């Protein structure tokens, strides 16, 4: 599961990379956590726009108190599940999640550290996502996951569905079969850069 990623680029740089003509300001932090704001790129009326949304679809678990905050579902394990299929079948609900790096926890319980992954020669890249409007948090988004490649396997068995620039249009505009194809393919091992750190996994947000 991916529960932490970064966007260490200005909004103008992100907009230029994704072909957005009108950059927007955002209150999204450089480090993005589930349930907090992040920036996405989506299409509206034939052009790409940037929009701040909450990372995670709100989910109320059985037995939760009415006043309890919903759980953010921030990763998409299977596009064929009813929760996702209806959205994934309609291109207007697809989005690109700008990322400069994503982290997984590594190490013994209680002292896990952050291991960071990025895409070689891509200062900013895209994670395939879906979005919708919610009654609880307004616009929300979630990122699609897939089986890891060999570069990530030493740390985790899953990874985000990463997209190269020449694949952005197909994700945003393609058929459901096209979308599902991205989840079923394996991202090339040689495009992943890994950086192990001594940063504690859990720290104050």
Short description, anyone?
The protein is mostly beta strands and 205 residues long.
Describe the structure.
The chain is mainly beta. It has a single domain (5-58, 70-200), classed as SOS response associated peptidase-like (hypothetical protein yedk fold, Alpha-Beta Complex). It is built from 4 helices and 15 strands. It has helices at residues 11-18, 82-88, 168-173, 176-184; strands spanning 5-6, 31-32, 37-44, 47-55, 57-59, 71-73, 75-76, 94-99, 101-106, 113-119, 125-134, 138-147, 158-160, 162-163, 192-200. The strands form 3 sheets. Strands 3, 4, 7, 8, 11, 12, 13 and 14 form an 8-stranded mixed sheet that branches. Strands 2-1-9-10-15 form a 5-stranded antiparallel sheet, with no helix packed on it. Strand 3 (37-44) and strand 4 form a beta hairpin. The longest helix is centred in the C-terminal third of the chain and has 9 residues, at 176-184. The mean pLDDT is 94.
